[in-house]
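HUMAN: Ready with one sample?

ASSISTANT:
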Amino acid sequence: MSVQALTYIFVGITFALYITIAIRSRAGSTSEFYIAGKGVNPIANGMATAADWMSAASFISMAGLISFLGRDGSVYLMGWTGGYVLLALLLAPYLRKFGQFTVPDFIGTRYYSSLARLVAVICLIIVSFTYVAGQMRGVGIVFSRFLEVDINTGVIIGMGIVFFYAVLGGMKGITYTQVAQYCVLIFAYLVPAVFISILITGNPIPQLGFGDQLVDEPTYLLNKLDGVMTDLGFNAYTSGFKETIDVFCITAALMLGTAGLPHVIVRFFTVPDVAAARKSAGYALIFIAILYTTAPAVASFARINLFESTHNVSYTAAPEWFKNWEGIGLIAWQDKNQDGKIQHAPGNAFEPVKPIFTGKFGDQGERAIDNKNNSESNNEVYIDRDIIVLANPEIANLPPWVIALVAAGALAAALSTAAGLLLVISSAVSHDLIKKTFATNISEKQELAYARISVFVAVVIAGLFGIYPPAFVAQVVAFAFGLAAATLFPAILMGIFSKSMNKEGAITGMLVGLIFTFSYILFFKFINPELNSKDYWLWGISPEGIGFIGMILNLFSATLVASLTAKTPADVKEMVDNIRQP
């Protein structure tokens, strides 16, 4: 059976499973719609949290970044996993004890201000839609390559599925759907990793095979990879060349952003009590670690297989997978030295190459082929980093059913996170904007209707992001984490641990963090991308890491303004004391 037929079968079965779960988990109240009625088992919530948190960036893009960046790619591993530990230990139990529906609900109540709630909603929506853009690009890549449909159609299908179970089941339906999605995505990630680890090193455990000897050579995998890369003119795979300050800031921004992500935080509102919140955080960390400890192995397997199967190979004899991905524009080749062979070398193969993906065929590939060669580089191949995990089974010549399984897993990862993000957006609009701010007298039934309408609007906007995404999946996600670190994380942290922080300080801090971080990213990534280099960055800090500086500015301005304005009311201080009581 062909890969496409198997992919239709696997994706069809998983979509049918998600829809069935949504129908059986229909939300009948705002409590069930927003927080699943606070009745989710800690193990199930741990799986759902892992699926919610491990997005297309984790499944599709992270290994691709590590594969191309080598040791420098570890900032994503350290930042995202470290951030989850920070969230689980520092914030989640306290927020669960507070007992509200949403993050803006906590900020609005803690800072006794509708304006604080409104600013938090604005920050949440910007962060969430930035994050959704990455998920939709992942959906588009999978549909375009494996189901051979127009990317617009693929995004519409994916969003239609998410819309169905988000509107019908709310958090209750999404939670149990995400449990199923976690099972699908982790199985889909591990199966090819185990296969390839056995083929390359003879070790069935990828985490160990990553540091093991090769089957056909008396040398270790990473030593071989270092040698191959240096022979081709690249830096050694295990070396790092990023500036230390930028590595630190990116890692910190990802960590603090993780701890401020609203769709992850809200998962801890769905369990019965604080003890269950702590248990589900521990389970989620285990479920997350399974994928994250496998990613470096997947990255190294893919990179060495990529070089060995394509470098210095005649284009006419290039493997089928190379032509398949070239057909949708995510690989592009042009013969610079007219020898008919594919040559890998440092530098960009084409100039310019903008990270945009539109239509069935990738705009990147079309731009690359239509534009002149980059004469400053001998590299002849453009490879989109987001395809590494998806193409890995094809590169290693694994059976078609494994390739189809990976496609189903990638969709599960992207759709699970998209559903969580869309729900927190709709909750912020219906609960925090409408119910708590502009129409306080509406009934629960009306609020539930507004929530479902908000999901529809959010789905439409998310679909547009899927058709016109701004960057690589993991880059977009890094921006979302930076914005969360600069805005929501300090407000939540100070709301729990600083009784002296008042509404004026919190509002000022969120606005300063948002404006600074958003402007910095916008300037270097979209207004003047030609200046996007360490020669022009503030203190050598990239847009991916600037959220850490935004967080510091948030804390500084909030503390300064709080010291110059009215003190926090006594009843609010008492509420903070109560939150922190064991």
The longest strand covers residues 331-333. Residues 353-371 have pLDDT under 50 and may be disordered.
